[in-house]
Amino acid sequence: MSIYTTRFFAGRREEREVPVLLYIRVTHFMTHILPQELKSLLEKEEVCLLDVREPDEHEAYNIGGMLIPLSDIILSHQKIPFNKPVVVYCRKGIRSQIAIQKLEEKFGFTNLINLSGGMEAWKKHL
User: Fold this and answer.
1) Is residue 5 included in any domain, yes or no?
2) Which CATH number fits the domain that encloses residue 62?
3) Which ranges of the chain does DSSP label H, i.e. alpha helix?
4) Residue 117 lies in a domain
5) Does pTM top 0.85 for this prediction?
6) Which run of H or E residues covers position 87?
7) What is the sign, positive or negative, of the torsion defined by CA atoms of 45, 50, 53, 56?
8) Mind listing the pLDDT tens digit of every residue in the chain (126 residues)?
9) 54 - beta bridge partners?
10) Has residue 24 been placed in a domain?
11) Are 48 and 81 a contacting pair, CB within 8 Å?
């Protein structure tokens, strides 16, 4: 594939063909859920909750999720079910995204869902 560029050189217009290298990389697609949607989902079907915060954060406030801190997520991956949806959460939704990315890339999980905004959004909206 090529594109054409136009430039002016010494008062003359010059067009030339320039090759274009296309490099497309699909980085990472992740499923997200809003706090309101999660609340509704919890009422309707069995969902596993996974808290990737630190123990003190979990003790201070939690919504009943299994605690596996982000730093332990690789070593404790066998505790996470493959056969039902798992909503992963943290304080703001950043550590949970990191956890999901690690678990999907290393172990092939396909059932992980990130709680958008984490516990801060949960407290704010519910």
Assistant:
1) no
2) 3.40.250.10
3) 35-44, 55-60, 94-107, 118-125
4) yes
5) no
6) strand 86-89
7) positive
8) 434 444 455 556 666 554 544 443 444 688 999 999 999 999 988 899 999 999 999 999 999 999 999 999 999 999 999 999 999 999 999 999 999 999 999 999 999 999 999 999 999 998
9) none
10) no
11) yes
- Are 73 and 101 in contact by the 8 Å Cβ rule? The answer is no
Strands 48-51 and 86-89, how do they pair? parallel
Containing structural domain, residue 44:
29-125
Domain count, the chain: 1
Q: Are 14 and 7 in contact (CB under 8 A)?
A: yes
Instruction: Return the amino acid letter for 92.
Output: K
22 lies in some domain: no
Cβ pair 116, 33 in contact under 8 A? yes
Q: Is the CB of residue 97 less than 8 Å from the CB of residue 30? A: yes
Angle between the 35-44 and 118-125 helix axes, to the nearest 10 degrees? 80
Q: Which two tokens stand for residue 44?
A: 């309707």
Six-digit token pair at 35?
A: 């706090």
